[in-house]
């Protein structure tokens, strides 16, 4: 998956464009190997709003093309976004276009390369797109095949703007699960009442049941269908619905905001896989051993609080499978099939041959285990306040929602016991440092989804890293992640990250006097391999590369020397307490040269 071009008319936070001057950016592809898209700029320059806009566009498309979701068509902007993606091994160029919140999707097949231009005087690109209008074909069905398989976002801080974008689809998914549960919960007593009234020839009860089923079917066609045995006689079924409507499986959103709870899910899944994801698991465990001093996992707990969700679609099946997996992993007897299981247990899982054998029996394809955990994760939306849900039901940006990842979650993975390489001891995963968790979470997410057409958005991913990891971060991604199928966007303030990215893929953000966001390319400044002091000066605008307090003290000493209130020897003595820097060493050398010249004169 590769981004090619974005065009916006209207406004999304600080990103604005008009019909006469739309906001346009064309993404260059790197030459000689893949390089991430690197976003740099001062705080408030618009780079966070830019990545939120991209996530918002794909989130809107996910909701719009999913017949199960209720997509509010009230965007505050029109857009075009062009990207290329592999579908069944064929490269396709996709154009998503929204006019007044009505979304269309067009495509044409590769392998011919797409002509884009960055020349500002050709920013409208009208001639180019007139010539290309004949090759575009409308996508009329199966639009999700042309969307990225996943949009995965990570933020080192509490980026409420980014998490709120992903919460919109999460709320829609929860609403689907809720509607499925409500229908079956309400259908049964209505049907039982109709059967009781049948002998009394009371048609009003059947009429009530019929009206309820017809209303549910009409308003939720993406969720329900007519039972197979009645599809040839629709009129008869809707008049006397003696069976409930058949439900369609709820589709997970393509977007995931990876908070701490999802980090735990990805960790236990990746490190314990031995089936279809065996290769990814082996690579992940190699990474853990070589860079984070971990050699394996011993056990973990899953704390479930699902009593109030027991009527929801598939929750009963998911809980029973997890319960059986827990029992088998500890070589304990399974609960009887007719035994009522607890919906709020604390399940313990011991990793070993019994766990792996049970995974194969219960899930066949181990990715189902991950899907089940993601479904339970999305049920968190039930805990959100009414005001938060109201805000998230609109596609228009109103405000950030602060608490979407907080509260008492229906599922928590905890007490993960891991093995250290040196010393050879066991400890809890939570006892690792913030930097280790951050590195594991990012590399794990990339390895887990790199075989799919995935867009990754990393917001300041290096914030907790030590200097060595900051210099190695992009190299670690290149070593352990297959970059063929993914697009990686990194928003950063770090010259360490910037030095590993090629300048044609670096987007420099700044705001002009009117508050309009501008994106500049670094055509005349090669960032790849540039020194950190050079980047801090040329890209981040720092003329002095040391902290202000010692800088002021140094300036005070040098001022005394320049005004001849301090001699050369005493000046050098006072400067000894400061560390090495280019600027200070330059002045020290000049003072020493002056002393030498005075000595020669004498």
Task: Produce a short descriptive summary.
This protein is α+β, with helices and mostly antiparallel strands. Helix content is 41%, strand content 20%. The strands form four sheets. Strands 1, 2, 3, 5, 6, 7 and 8 form a seven-stranded antiparallel sheet that branches. The chain has a seven-stranded mixed sheet with strand order 12-9-17-18-4-19-20, sandwiched between helices.
Describe this structure in words.
41% of the residues lie in helices and 20% in strands. The protein contains 18 helices and 20 strands. The strands form 4 sheets. Strands 1, 2, 3, 5, 6, 7 and 8 form a 7-stranded antiparallel beta sheet that branches. The longest helix is centred in the N-terminal third of the chain and has 39 residues, at 160-198.
Map the helices and strands.
Elements: E1 2-12, E2 15-17, E3 23-26, E4 37-40, H1 47-65, E5 77-87, E6 90-99, E7 102-109, H2 126-132, E8 137-138, E9 150-155, H3 160-198, H4 203-219, E10 224-225, H5 234-239, E11 246-247, E12 255-257, H6 260-272, H7 278-291, E13 294-304, H8 315-329, E14 346-350, H9 353-363, H10 367-378, H11 386-393, E15 411-420, E16 426-428, H12 434-449, E17 454-459, H13 467-480, E18 486-491, H14 495-498, E19 506-511, E20 517-521, H15 532-538, H16 548-562, H17 568-575, H18 582-601
Parallel strand pairs: 4-18, 4-19, 9-12, 9-17, 17-18
Antiparallel strand pairs: 1-2, 1-3, 1-5, 5-6, 6-7, 7-8, 10-11, 13-14, 13-15, 15-16, 19-20
Helix pairs in contact: 1-3, 3-4, 6-7, 6-10, 6-12, 7-12, 8-9, 16-17, 17-18
